[in-house]
Amino acid sequence: MLKKLVIMVLCFMLVMPVAVLAEEETLPVLEKPASLTVRANELNELLLRLTEPASIIEYMEKDITILYELDFKINDGPWKFAKNWDGVIGSEGVIGYYENLYDKMNVAGYLNNIGHDEKNAIDLPIFPENLELQAFDLQNSTYSFRYRFLYEYPVEDGYKVISSSYSDIATIGKAQGTAIPSSLEAPTNLVGELKTREDTGQPYFHFSFGIPTSVEAANKATAIRTKLDWKVGNGQWATELAGVEPFQKGDESLTDDVDADPIDEGTWDEINIKENTYYFRAYFELKKPDGSIVKSPFSNVIEIGSPAFYQGASSWAVNDLNKAQDYGLITDRIKGNMSAPISREEFAELATKLYEIYTGTKANPAPATTFTDTTNPEILKAFQLGIVAGVGNNQYAPQVLITREQMAAMLNRAVKVINPTVDLSTEGAPTFADESAIESYFVGNVKFMAKNGLMGSVGDNRFAPKDNCTREQAVIIALRTYEKYKN
């Protein structure tokens, strides 16, 4: 009996370490923080951006309490805390420990209680008094920060703590002065949509875009702001108007998304995408220590809504222009005065629009160096398609007005591009009384357009080849072309 009891005790002693080990294996394994950046704002305050790895987020989603612990140093001085968690701490735990030690700064806190963004990050403000200072001196001093994760668990007489490795050090101030850039890359791939708030039913715009790596790096040295420029219809951009501000997030931080809620901000009385077109473009901005502003180039432009209605049309043209409006054939550059003569630049934009609407594909532009007097991508697209040509000496002459015979030639080329199988014969085309005034190399183009009902007499059986063509005439001819060949 005694022998059996001894064996049982020995077995129990052998099992105990295994049970303790199994319990310890349930403790979380804390990864090093993903990143830490620091930036300054206009009020001489610092903002720490703490980014967590996915594993930490997963622990918190499982209701495992994770703490953060901040540390700092000024210039080449020692780290303020550099705590080595070894052994049992008091019954108040980590938070109580720091409250008793240092009440100037939120040194430690519960990550679970702080809302994280879509990048698994939080922003923590740091004020001069947190570091026992009157103000931050970013010109003459250097401030360094680091943080790590903690997990505390109860043991006899208190708590024990496990910790992750410290994050990479984030530094701002004198040592980072040369890191503040003199230029910024533009936001990439701006996309946007109209949304509606669930609680109020109020419409607003939401935008997202890419942040270049160089801009992310610059944000570690100084505050980079994301801004969203805007205009309505043919109006001016907000950045071009005195007293009008672009949209940005309330904390004026670097972000890859922005909500534009103009009604709340008093910018517009309403959002009406059935009556207006709203244009947006994003850019980055920073303020250097000397007070100068650095702005990035603009992103691509986003257009949301229906084009603003055209103006200045002749009464005879209204019905056809309404149809062209529905198709999207009236371009922004011409809609302000439809009865004005159309220029070569304006026609190239119209021809490109006709091609893209008809084919459902975006045209590719010729190289920006094709012409010396324009880099308009719509002109370069029309040139690449073979619809328009230069005037010699690497020039396009964008502001020159188009004549009716030139219009016939350009639209004839457009027909060939959008419908390569079309019958180009001119047999049976009408003869005009002033046909002798048509340049010989335009005669075939004029006859093709006349035969197919796309262009005709201006009265008295005259074609008037040297007369300028108006914007509304050009749009209506483009409309006829689209409707004739769209099926």
Topology diagram in text:
Blueprint: H1 2-24, E1 35-40, E2 46-51, H2 54-61, E3 67-74, H3 93-101, E4 108-110, E5 121-126, E6 142-155, E7 158-163, E8 170-173, E9 188-196, E10 203-210, H4 213-218, E11 224-232, E12 257-260, H5 262-265, E13 277-287, E14 293-295, E15 302-305, H6 318-327, H7 344-359, H8 377-385, H9 404-418, H10 443-451, H11 471-485
Antiparallel strand pairs: 1-2, 2-5, 3-4, 3-6, 6-7, 6-8, 9-10, 10-12, 11-13, 13-14, 13-15
Unreliable stretches covering 5 or more consecutive residues = 1-25
Radius of gyration, in angstroms, nearest whole number? 35 Å
Form type: elongated
Structural class: alpha+beta
Question: How many structural domains?
Answer: 3
Give the quaternary arrangement of the chains: single chain
The residue-averaged pLDDT reads 85
SS elements, strand count = 15
Distance between the termini: 102 Å
Helices and strands, in order, run as: HEEHEHEEEEEEEHEEHEEEHHHHHH
Helix content: 25-40%
Portion in beta strands = 15-25%
Largest sheet: 5 strands, antiparallel
Number of helices: 11
Give a verbal description of the structure.
With 487 residues, the protein is of the alpha+beta class. 25% of the residues lie in helices and 21% in strands. Strands 3, 4, 6, 7 and 8 form a 5-stranded antiparallel sheet that branches. Strands 11, 13, 14 and 15 form a 4-stranded antiparallel sheet that branches. It has a 3-stranded antiparallel sheet with strand order 1-2-5, with no helix packed on it. The radius of gyration is 35 Å and the shape is elongated. It starts with a helix and ends with a helix.
